[in-house]
Structure formats: C-alpha cells, structure tokens
Amino acid sequence: MRERLFSFLVVGALFGIMLTKSEVISWFRIQEMFRFQSFHMYGIIGLAVMTAAISLLTIKTFRIRSLHGEPIGLPTKVMGPVRPNHLLGGIAFGLGWALVGACPGPIYALIGNGVSVMIVALASAVAGAWTYGLLRPRLPH
Amino acid sequence: MRDFISNPWPWYVAGPLIGLIVPLLLLVGRKRFGISSSLQHACAATAPCGLDYFTYDWRREGTWLFVFVLGVLVGGFVAATAFADPDSYIKISDATRADLTALGLTDLAGLVPMEIFSWSGLLTLPGLAMVVGGSFLVGFGARYAGGCTSGHAITGLAELQIASLVAVIGFFIGGLCSTHVILPLLL
User: Is residue B37 located within the same domain as residue B66?
Assistant: First the structure.
C-alpha cells in the first residue's frame, strides 16, 4: 500500500510540473482562452482528450492490466445521463474559473509555485464544496 | 535538457503529456483521474457535520487523491525551482495584453496579476471577489456538476460522456460571463 501511495505522489508531481510548464496554471492564460485570443489552451485540452481517449481504448481493447497485475475495470458512463446539475454546476464552476483563473488542480500547483495567497483560494474552494453538500437536497439535480 | 524543460512547453507537447495522466493513474492504481473530489474528501475528513454528502469512508476513497494533490503541489514547487522559466512574463497574445491593460492591470509579470493575487490585494474588492469568491464558486460548481476540468473536460470527454460535454459547455457559459461582464465591473 505504501509504495502504491508513493506512485500516486510521483504521478501527481509529474502532473504539477506539466501544469506549470505548460502555463495552464496562469490566470493570464485562462483570460486569453475566454477571450479566444490564442489556441494554446484549446490545443492542450484537445490533445489531452485525444490522448486520453486513445489510451482508454487501448487499455480496453488489449485488456491491459495494472502494474500490480489486476484487471483495470474501466468505469463506463460514471456521470450517468445528462441532468440539470451538469449544466447548472458547470456554469457556477465556469463563473469561478474565469475569476480566480484556476481550477482545482492548478490551485494546488500554484501554492507549490509560491503564490501563497492561493492557500486562501483552496480553503474557499473547500468551503464551496461544503456549501454544496449542505444545499444538495434543495438544489435541482 | 534542463533548458528544454525550463522553457515553457508548447501546447502540442503539453497536451499529450497531460492526457497520459489518465492511463497512468489507471495503470498505477486503477484510479479515475478527477481532482475536485479532493475537495469533497477534505470536507468529509474535517467537517462532515452529519451531511449525507460527506458521510462515507473518506480514508478508503480519498487517501490516494490527497497524496496525488500533494504531489501536484510538490510538482509545482519543483517546476518553479529546478526548472524555473528564464522569462518572467507569460507569452500571452498582444490582444490579451492590450485587453488586460485596458481593464486597468499594470503588472502583467509572473503567473498571476500580483496586484490582486497577493495578501494586500486580498483585502481589496477585486481580490476578495476573485480569490475568495471565484474559488468558492469553483469548489461549489465542481461538486454540483460532478467534476471539474480534469474529471469532466479531460476524463469525461475522453470517455465520450454526454453529461461531461454539457458540463464543459456550462464551464464556458460561466467563464465567458465572468470574463466579459463581471471582470470589467470589478476591475
């Protein structure tokens, strides 16, 4: 278990380096994206989706097992059918994304980059998630 | 080699590498890539307050993700120190630079506008709205939508899930509204 946790740490660190060096953690890049003034962000997300899709297809087709020899049971349609929460939650997320210029992954990476005020952003994002947990029974889903 | 890593990575290098995180997590530990769940696990671990949404075995569900996001933080630190960008400016387009200057931002150096994303900036209305308000909506919206950029825009789209496509359309409706309506009012 311990070595398995260590591998999550390593993959996370690789992801943190990628997020930083590709500049997607930059508030300026997010502004550029929402103003349609550069292909940078669209190129990254587009190629990331294509690479992930091909990888998933490969794992499925060749029934590739994990490094520990277990079958990778790919979850399908974990999001279920389209429901109002996908659009409404998505809009709330987008409103916030353009303001703070960072989604959850970049918030962690920015703290590592020394933008210390993002610790407040992380606490506030957790508070947002908690508020959702509180209001969940009353929100349309 | 070090120079190659230190300079900003072009989109056609960064995109495929980021996409490979999805199979890597499956191969290493059969985990589905998605980061905003860490916010839910953080609530479950610290303040479940009897709410259904936070009542589950967070150690079992969330430990791997806490370790992963700690890694993301460490990766950010490594990138900023060992592979620091020789240029202090993000090379955004001239059009964006002009737009942001017109909005009144004076310091376009660094990853984020420091006049807002600093401890003194936090005490201003734009700082409060953007840092505290923006990330509150990010946390709230991501859990309401069932995922964020990683879980919906990367993993969900790669799994060809329509619900994720709808969420991503929502991300853009909200983002365009904030960028073109709310930001000009704040700045």
Answer: yes
Distance from CA of B94 to the nearest CA of A (A): 9
Both B153 and B61 in one domain: the answer is: no
pLDDT at A1 over 90: no
Answer whether A8 sits within 8 Å of B43, measured CB to CB.
Answer: no
- Per residue in A7-56, pLDDT (tens digit) is 999 999 999 999 999 999 999 999 999 999 999 999 999 999 999 999 99
- With a cut of 0.90, is the ipTM above it? yes
User: Which structural domain range is residue B77 located in?
Assistant: 1-88
Total tally of structural domains belonging to chain B: 2
From the list A8, A80, A110, which residue is nearest B64 (CB)?
Answer: A8
With CB atoms and an 8 Å threshold, state whether A56 touches B74.
no
Domain-terminating residue out of B55, B88, B121: B88
Q: Are residues B117 and B160 in the same domain?
A: yes
**Which residue out of A56, A132, A138 would a mutagenesis test of the B interface target, given it has the greatest number of B Cβ atoms within 10 Å?**
A132
One domain for residues B102 and B162? yes
Q: Which of B30, B65, B88 is the last residue of a domain?
A: B88
DSSP string computed for chain B: -HHHHHSPPPHHHHHHHHHTHHHHHHHHH-----STHHHHHHHHHH--TT-GGG-S-HHHHHHHHHHHHHHHHHHHHHHHHTT--SSSB----HHHHHHHHHTT-----BSS-TTTSSTTGGGSHHHIIIIIIHHHHHHHHHHHHT--IIIIIIIIHHTT-HHHHHHHHHHHHHHHHIIIIIHHHH-
Measure in Å the smallest separation between the Cα of A60 and chain B Cα atoms: 11
Which residues of chain A neighbour B92 with C-beta distances below 8 Å?
A: 26, 28-29, 31-32, 37-38
Q: pLDDT at residue B132 above 80?
A: yes
